[in-house]
């Protein structure tokens, strides 16, 4: 006859499984965050949707980070849109701000979940980053250094860097197709 503990999950076995799962999540988070410039921001992004952590897998964390990066991109487009359409904005800045809107909209299209399974996510994300960099370059060339604008772009970069790191760690863990 089998021991009862093998037939039913005992609280001890359940706690051990849960502890192992948490340890796995922490290990994945460490792999991702060590590739970012700001570990604190990385942890905030990864912990912002706890349901992704409870799946205990790298794919869930990468999906979550990319979704948050998409949200941040959309928020950045809205920010630039509001600024460009404000009557208080210097008219000389409006064209550059509209270019930034266009760049972030184009970059948004590259932040998709399809690339995660096809090992193209980091390539796509580099294209998104290039669009944000084009906005920064345009702002700098036109000597537009508005603190709110710089802070908005930094916030986007912080979230984006976590998504990029998560996608990179995921791609590195996938088998190379033959």
TrEMBL record:
Please name the PANTHER family in this protein's record. PECTINESTERASE INHIBITOR DOMAIN-CONTAINING PROTEIN, PLANT INVERTASE/PECTIN METHYLESTERASE INHIBITOR SUPERFAMILY PROTEIN
What InterPro entries does this protein map onto? Invertase/methylesterase_inhib, Pectinesterase_inhib_dom
**SUPFAM superfamilies, per database record:** Plant invertase/pectin methylesterase inhibitor
All copies of domain Pectinesterase inhibitor, residue ranges:
24-166
Q: From the UniProt record, which GO molecular function terms apply? A: enzyme inhibitor activity
Q: Please give the name of this protein.
A: Pectinesterase inhibitor domain-containing protein
């Amino acid at each position: 006859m089998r021991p009862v503990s093998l037939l039913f999950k005992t609280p001890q076995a359940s706690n051990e499984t849960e502890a192992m799962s948490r340890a796995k999540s922490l290990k994945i988070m460490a792999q991702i965050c060590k590739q970012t410039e700001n570990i604190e921001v990385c942890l905030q992004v990864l912990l912002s949707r706890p349901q992704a952590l409870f799946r205990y897998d790298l794919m869930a964390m990468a999906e979550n980070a990319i979704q948050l990066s998409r949200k941040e991109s959309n928020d950045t487009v809205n920010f630039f849109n509001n600024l460009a359409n404000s009557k208080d904005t210097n008219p000389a800045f409006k064209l550059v701000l509209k270019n930034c809107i266009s760049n972030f909209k184009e970059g948004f299209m590259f932040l998709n979940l399809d690339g995660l399974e096809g090992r193209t996510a980091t390539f796509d994300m580099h294209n998104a980053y290039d669009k944000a960099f084009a906005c920064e370059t345009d702002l700098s060339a036109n000597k537009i250094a508005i603190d709110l604008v710089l802070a908005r772009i930094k916030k986007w970069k912080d979230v984006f860097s976590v998504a990029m790191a998560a996608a990179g760690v995921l791609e590195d863990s996938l088998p190379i197709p033959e």
